[in-house]
């Protein structure tokens, strides 16, 4: 079986309508990507899986949809204005700018540059005579910090007092609504607030397709809890994340934990789950013990008491927060890499097949009349019935073999062919994408079977 490279993946996504270059007709805008019809379905299915796993299935779990634009004091309080930055240096010869920790990690995956200070990185670059990957010179500026938030102006005058920011993470929308949710849902600790939404970062070295972009989507989940219970909840969410990915069809051997040495300004402990992409291990999730940092800071800056009153002990305190965060685009990319295959069949034929979990497949069923003139009407009747239950397509052009292949290539797990027997006794031939085996079923059985096999319920 052929190994799928990043170039293969970009080509596949473009050819089959999963992901296109952003603003393509204007030659694009670097590192922006638009999801096409199938990519959008896949992304939505991953978000539905998250909603099922994090909001629906958990106790005391609530979803919000906060605005992207927030009062700028939020970012002062959260620490993002002062310390949400990346270490950068420029090549003095060719003027290319690099994110130093990424550059060092790429050169030597053992050093874990995210644990180094700016001074340590500068010293490492000099001592190891690091060369510019673009021009080969060893002549860099010192390492300095560069803030990642996108700033924009509110109103018509261009003054710093009008500066507002595109959120760099969803989490703050959940923190500033802590009291609102607690009050309206009469929530008792521990409880969770989750959100799915866009985030923006002025990443200086974006790349690897949708893995690192300047606009991306997050699924973030914050558990508010009492100090003392935080470490247990932190451990629970590390495992919960692993199980979530396995439920999406990512195998355990392609996933690993990476505990952080250097912690973000808000964290007491942090651990990523990484997936083995073709370019190396890449973070797709993070679990963070954010302590009471965020709510304490928002209390200070807003002059509002973001406290919880425990009526069993008569105590008032600021809760701790355990964060479990997922990058939607990275999860989509991992699922695509895990599923896409070029398979050689008996007889030497090659088929492109997306062996994606039926739960996530953009289209669940493909309806195919064997002979359009004779079976088209019946096939259309069954298509109209099935599409009320799940995403269904109807395909009448080309040989039946070609139509099966088209469905395989976009990951449609089931196809039915409609023939004379369907007209006589109502049965259809159900074909399985992965095994390519076929069997006869009634239409009622078919609908129940697909609903059961595409459901997240376990
Ligand atoms: N609220 C915490 C937070 O934002 P993070 O580790 O910086 O933590 C969370 O980001 C997740 O968002 C990451 O695990 C990753 O999946 C995704 N992510 C972060 N930066 C990204 C980028 N530039 N492009 C795509 N996804 C990104």
TrEMBL record:
Q: What is its EC number?
A: 6.1.1.14
Q: Which residues does the annotation say bind substrate?
A: 99, 169, 216-220, 323-327
> Does Electron transport appear among the keywords?
no
Tell me which Gene3D superfamilies the record gives.
Answer: Anticodon-binding domain, Bira Bifunctional Protein, Domain 2
Pfam families to which the protein is assigned, alphabetical: HGTP_anticodon, tRNA-synt_2b
GO cellular component assignments: cytoplasm
What does the UniProt keyword field contain?
Aminoacyl-tRNA synthetase, ATP-binding, Cytoplasm, Ligase, Nucleotide-binding, Protein biosynthesis
Enzyme superclass (EC): ligase
Sorted alphabetically, the Gene Ontology BP terms of this entry are: glycyl-tRNA aminoacylation
* Domain of life according to the entry: Bacteria
Which residues are listed as membrane-spanning? none
Domain Aminoacyl-transfer RNA synthetases class-II family profile, first and last residues per copy: 8-362
Subcellular location per UniProt equals: Cytoplasm
Q: Which reaction does it catalyse?
A: tRNA(Gly) + glycine + ATP = glycyl-tRNA(Gly) + AMP + diphosphate
Q: Which InterPro entries match?
A: aa-tRNA-synt_IIb (IPR002314), aa-tRNA-synth_II (IPR006195), aa-tRNA-synth_II/BPL/LPL (IPR045864), Anticodon-bd (IPR004154), Anticodon-bd_dom_sf (IPR036621), Gly-tRNA_synthase/POLG2 (IPR027031), Gly_tRNA_ligase_bac (IPR022961), GlyRS-like_core (IPR033731)
**Its Gene Ontology molecular function terms?**
ATP binding; catalytic activity, acting on a protein; glycine-tRNA ligase activity; transferase activity
Query: What positions does the entry give for ATP binding?
Result: 201-203, 211-216, 283-284, 327-330
Subunit: Homodimer.
Summarize the protein's role: Catalyzes the attachment of glycine to tRNA(Gly).
Q: Which HAMAP family match?
A: Gly_tRNA_synth_B
Q: Which family does it belong to?
A: Belongs to the class-II aminoacyl-tRNA synthetase family.
- The protein's name: Glycine--tRNA ligase
The species this protein belongs to is [Clostridium] polysaccharolyticum
